[in-house]
Each structure stands twice: as C-alpha cells, then as structure tokens.
C-alpha cells in the first residue's frame, strides 16, 4: 500500500511512447520552482479553486469547514481535517484532495487499461512524484509488478534517496529520468533545501549498474541559467556513460494556480516563463559544451 496523488494517462513527455504516469505523494526537496507543490507533503492536502465553485452548498452540508452564506462560499482551513469528503462530493472540482492510498495491484490494473497504446508506440508506465524514491517499498513493488506483466518502466526522480533503494529498483527500471537541478552544491542547497552530494553518489551507483539515464535539467531564469551551471551539466554528461540524452526543462507558470488553490507560498511568482527561443539558445550552448568534453553523441532536446 502506498500514497499517490494522480494517475495521468496518455502522457507523452515522461519517457518513450505513450505512457501512464503514476505520481507518488511526498518529496523531501523544496525546490523553489516546484510546479506540483501539492505533491510535497506526504499527507493528504485539500485545495480550493473559487473560480470553479458554483456555491451549491453541498460541502457545507457535510463539513463545518465550509459555509455558504448569501451566495458566498468560505473555506476555513483551520477546521479542515483533510478527510477529502468535500472533494469527493464537489461535482465541479472546486474542492481538490491531493493524496490517496492505493495498493500496487490496483495501480497496475489501472495502468494496463492503455496497454494497447504502449505496444503500438513503445510506451509503458512512468513512476514520478513528488519523489518516488521516498516510498521505496511501494515503488519497488510497483516496478516489479509492472515488469512481471511486460511493461516498459521509467522512474522520474531527483535522485535523492537511499543507496539501498537504488540497488533494489534498478533491476526493474528500464530508464531513469534524472533531474540535474543545480551544479553548485551551495546553490543546490539554497534552491532545493537538500544537498546534491547524495544525488551525485546515487548517479555514480546507477552508472556502475549500467542503467540508462536521460538527464532532465530545469532551467529557471535568473537562478540557474548561468554559464557555470551549463558547464557543470556538460561535465556530468561527459563523466557518466549511462547518460543517453539531455532534456532542457524550460521554466513555466502552469503551477502558479496550484499555489493559490492549496494556500502555499509561491517563491517564483515574479519570475517569468522562459521563452522557447531562449530555451533553444541554451540547448545549443549546451550541445557545444558537451561536444567539447566527450565524443559520445548526446542529444540535447527542449
């Protein structure tokens, strides 16, 4: 049994082919630019989107945290126990519950609904987060069951987890999507709240195990779009033969509404989305830096 916060079908950006992405709840990192802030807590959290609320009053009938008076809906978070009943009841999805328990068999059963698409496109299942390594036993069970039914498996991770977890899941993982958020240890700690050293050690382990890795590099204007960070990415690519490609993940603003809905502080509210032209420019700079350090052909994609 584990906790997830979403299962997204027909995904095309989380590994090869058409995939189903299973998002595991909870993350030890606190990245400034996190676009799924509702995934951070290991507990269920409740969100409210007033723009979707039709003031029907159904939630107020079952929970004292809600009141609807004179056509206005008030949600008092201090009275909320995160039971999720209001979200289950809300037909217009104004109330949102992030985090629910599922067992591995039920997850795989849901994933297999699109098996036909996986076969025709070379897709499969991706386990993301949050940080999937933070639920090691559940992740291992999901991966082993996925491989048992012949699915291609991807783990989308920051790499922050225990060495033992990497050793346990590697035999069942066809591909790692591995974040490289910041090359500077000092800045990594400031931007994510954790050290980069365990992540680097785990990447060395994955490399030694002969796993396949696509490096995912979120680039945030004014934070890590620096020349020295791009140099650090190129150095990492040259050092680890397990890295098959690099994806530039341009900063976007799609997560802003989640911060409002879940009553969380948005620390990148004033940072603009990265323009596609700038992301392409950074990718070209990175291609040249990688070519200077290794003869291996490494695709760099935006």
Show the helix and strand layout.
Layout: E1 2-11, E2 19-24, E3 45-48, H1 58-62, E4 66-69, E5 72-75, H2 85-89, E6 95-98, E7 100-102, H3 104-111, H4 115-121, E8 124-128, H5 136-148, E9 152-157, H6 163-169, E10 175-179, H7 185-192, H8 197-208, E11 213-219, H9 227-239, E12 243-250, H10 256-261, H11 276-293, E13 300-301
Parallel strand pairs: 2-8, 8-9, 9-10, 10-11, 11-12, 12-13
Antiparallel strand pairs: 1-2, 1-7, 3-6, 4-5
Helix pairs in contact: 3-5, 9-11
Walkthrough of the structure:
- The chain is α/β, with parallel strands linked by helices and 302 residues long.
- It is built from eleven helices and 13 strands.
- Helix 3 crosses helix 5 and helix 9 (227-239) packs across helix 11 (276-293).
- The longest helix is centred in the last third of the chain and has 18 residues, at 276-293.
- The chain starts with a strand and ends with a strand.
């Amino acid at each position: 049994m584990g906790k997830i916060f979403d299962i997204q079908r027909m995904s095309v950006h989380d590994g090869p082919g058409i995939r189903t992405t299973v998002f595991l709840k909870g993350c030890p990192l606190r990245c400034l630019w996190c676009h799924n802030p509702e995934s951070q807590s290991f507990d269920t959290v409740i969100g409210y989107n007033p723009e979707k609320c039709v003031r029907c009053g159904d939630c107020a009938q079952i929970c004292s945290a809600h009141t609807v008076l004179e056509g206005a809906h008030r949600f008092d978070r201090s009275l909320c126990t995160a039971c999720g009943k209001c979200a289950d009841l809300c037909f217009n999805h104004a109330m949102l519950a992030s985090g629910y328990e599922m067992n591995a068999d039920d997850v795989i059963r849901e994933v297999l609904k699109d098996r036909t698409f996986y076969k025709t496109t070379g897709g499969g299942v991706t386990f993301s987060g949050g940080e999937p390594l933070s639920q090691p036993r559940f992740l291992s069970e999901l991966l082993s069951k996925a491989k048992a039914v012949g699915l291609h498996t991807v783990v989308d991770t920051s790499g922050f987890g225990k060495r033992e977890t990497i050793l346990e899941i590697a035999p069942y993982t066809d591909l790692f999507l591995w974040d490289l958020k910041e090359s500077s240890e000092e800045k990594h700690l400031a931007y994510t709240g954790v050290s980069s050293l365990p992540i680097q050690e785990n990447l060395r382990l994955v490399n030694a195990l002969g796993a396949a890795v696509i490096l995912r590099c979120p680039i945030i204007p004014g934070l890590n779009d620096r020349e020295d960070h791009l140099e650090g990415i190129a150095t990492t690519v040259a050092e680890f033969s397990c890295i098959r490609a690099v994806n530039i993940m341009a900063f976007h603003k799609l997560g802003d509404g989640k911060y409002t809905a879940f009553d969380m502080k948005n620390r990148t509210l004033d940072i603009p989305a990265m323009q596609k032209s700038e992301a392409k420019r950074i990718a070209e700079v990175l291609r040249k830096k990688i070519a200077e350090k290794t003869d291996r052909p490494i695709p760099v994609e935006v």
